[in-house]
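User: Before I run my own analysis I want an independent prediction to cross-check against. Here's the chain; please return only the structure tokens and, at the end, one sentence I can use as a sanity check.
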Amino acid sequence: MTQPYTLETLIDRQAIADVILRYARGIDRLDFDLMRDCYHPDAYDDHGSMKGSVEQFIAAAREFLQRWTVTQHFMGNMLIEVDGDQARAETYAVACHRREDAEGNGKDDLIGVRYVDRFERRAGQWKIAHRVVAAEWRRVDEVRGARGRGALGVWGRRDTDDVIHWIMTARSPT
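Assistant: Structure tokens:
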């Protein structure tokens, strides 16, 4: 279905895309408040093994994400269709999860997914009302001795000492 691209529709589409990207930052930086802010309070999330309210999803994510040394969510194709105060969004993504021990041995778990979302605009804010994560493929690879942090420069962190917080507050790394 082709939509007329009015300025309002383009602004709505960008606002929805921003929510999708903030979700990726939130989940990768373990910023659960940022993740929560992407959903309406009564939203439903179906991540397969984690299904339920946004609060149930965040509680499960807090536990699940602790198993991984790092995660990265690469958001790709986004098809966003706005219909008044509701919208459908389908986002292709690759979710990368790495688990390492002190020697850098472990595994990479990569999953190709589609985030299939219903967004609603309430009080002028676009947020996720219903999300289903559809898995398309998965690949698990062994990792051997990959550690070596420090040799390549600034490394990402999963807390408020991450580089994004340095930039946003004009402070130096700790």
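Sanity check: Strands lie at 39-46, 51-53, 70-83, 86-100, 106-122, 125-143.
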